[in-house]
Amino acid sequence: MHKSGFVTILGKPNAGKSTLMNALIGERLSVINAKIQTTRHRIFGILNHDDYQIVFSDTPGIVPHAQYKLHERMMNYVRESLVDADLLILLHDAEDPRPDLEAVEKLKAATVPVLVVLNKVDLSTQEKTPAITAFWDELLPGKEKIYISALHKYNLDVLLRKILDLLPEGEAFYPKDQITDKTERFFVSEIIRGKMLSIYSKEIPYSAEIQVIEFKEQEKITKITANIITERESQKAIILGHQGKKIKQLGTDARKDIEEFIQKKVYLELIVKVDKDWRNNDLFLDRSGYV
């Protein structure tokens, strides 16, 4: 018997969706960062076994009021993931009393199985568990609750067994040696953007987009050139930093992670450009993969 299906992970932007998917797949497929709006695309992480193939879908956090066309496209990914899912997971911080009510309403109307996965249980206590369970029983009655720590990989075996119980029988959707639907170029841009989230504060990372314009593999080194697109000259100056120190730090930190990811020496060139309306430019968004 072979099981196969699509599992969509929903949750608030800081719920730990990327951390969970990475822990289950065993690869660093999504940008992991504590800041909100980390994932902008829909990223498939494919878990393969002789007896099953699970296609996890990490989606952007729900943006209730889209300010830009970029946000609209991000929410399109969420809607698509609800349509083709065989199982829906609502991932939520066990200690957070403020649920994503829009996601809750979507799950109430779901026609496929739903799991409520309460994350970061390592930061909670057993004494609080009954009250947390009662809270979610009222919000989503009849839905099974599983407590985990994605960061420390606690109870992930229990979660995986439950997922397999709920998935249908079927053939694999992807080749068994494939772990994602995204290209190396995509993950290079995600790594750079992830480092921006760590280095820069306030609105800078959220008003910037990364475009890998050259990815040239040579025998001993891979040459990568990426544009960092931001909205204002003042933001460009912040990204560059005094005497270029910030952009140098970004390049060094990103290069190390890219080398670890592609298992090869990397020469990384970063170029900062200004496009004041990129988040509302359909052609730019198309070219950046938001389709």
The CATH class designation of the largest domain is: Alpha Beta
- What's the architecture of the largest domain, going by CATH? 3-Layer(aba) Sandwich
Structural class, judged by helices and strands? alpha/beta
Enumerate the strands of the largest sheet in spatial order, edge to edge or round the barrel. Answer: 2-3-1-4-5-6
Portion in helices:
25-40%
β-strand amount: 15-25%
Q: What is the strand and helix layout of this fold?
A:
Layout: E1 3-11, H1 17-25, E2 43-49, E3 52-58, H2 69-83, E4 87-93, H3 101-108, E5 114-119, H4 129-139, E6 144-147, H5 156-166, H6 184-199, E7 209-217, E8 222-230, H7 233-240, H8 245-262, E9 266-274, H9 282-287
Parallel strand pairs: 1-3, 1-4, 4-5, 5-6, 8-9
Antiparallel strand pairs: 2-3, 7-8
Helix pairs in contact: 6-8
Q: What brief labels describe this structure?
A:
23% strand; three-stranded mixed sheet; Rossmann fold; 9 helices; six-stranded mixed sheet; GMP Synthetase, Chain A, domain 3; alpha/beta; 291 residues; 2 domains
Quick take:
This protein has 291 residues and is α/β, with parallel strands linked by helices. 35% of the residues lie in helices and 23% in strands. It has two domains: 3-166, Rossmann fold; 184-287, GMP Synthetase, Chain A, domain 3 (2-Layer Sandwich), CATH 3.30.300.20.
Protein described:
With 291 residues, this protein is α/β, with parallel strands linked by helices. It has two domains: 3-166, 3-Layer(aba) Sandwich (Rossmann fold); 184-287, 2-Layer Sandwich (GMP Synthetase, Chain A, domain 3), CATH 3.30.300. It is built from nine helices and nine strands. A six-stranded mixed β-sheet has the order 2-3-1-4-5-6, sandwiched between helices. Strands 7-8-9 form a three-stranded mixed β-sheet. α6 runs antiparallel to α8. The longest helix is centred in the last third of the chain and has 18 residues, at 245-262. The protein is globular, with a radius of gyration of 20 Å. The model has no long low-confidence stretch (mean pLDDT 89).
